Amino acid sequence: MSEPFRPQPPPNEAETTERPSGVPPRHPHALAEAGGLTGAVAGAILGSIAGPFGAVAGGALGSALGAFTGEALSRAEHEREVHDRELDDTIGVTSGDLGTSEENKHPSPEALAEARTHDEARRET
Question: What gap in Å lies between CA 113 and CA 119, rounded to an integer?
Fold first, then answer.
């Protein structure tokens, strides 16, 4: 029985490289940090109903929940990227021949003859 697919965790900042487009890689914990900050602000606003201590407690709780949610979103995004990469490799988008059968990889004699005729006609002109 085969082992179930387990995606790898997101790469560390040291492992990320610059993308071919020249765009720098995004920080590996960007979603967790953004979630933590957003959760802290939302928690502090909601906790302020109970006064200053409520704002502090709400900010701490919101920060923890926001960071947890951001990390979960980051992992889900990474799993989707891994799946897309594997699927692209399987169907031949990034490697291979995009589903072309072995017999269709070589030109037919008719296509070669037509190309020769076309080339000869261009040389005469």
Answer: 10
> Residue 50 CA to chain centroid, in angstroms?
42
Hey, is 75 helix, strand or coil? helix
Query: What's the CA gap between 1 and 6, in Å, rounded?
Result: 15
CA angle 94/10/27 to nearest 5° reads 100
Helices (H), 1-125: 30-47, 52-91, 109-124
pTM: 0.52
Give the C-alpha separation, 32 to 28, whole Å. Answer: 9
Question: Under a CB-based contact definition with an 8 Å cutoff, are residues 64 and 37 in contact?
Answer: no
Model confidence pLDDT, tens digit, residues 83-112: 988 888 777 776 666 666 666 667 778 888
Q: Which residues lie closer than 8 Å to 16 by C-beta, 6 or more apart?
A: 25, 28
Contact between 74 and 29 under an 8 Å Cβ cutoff? The reply is yes
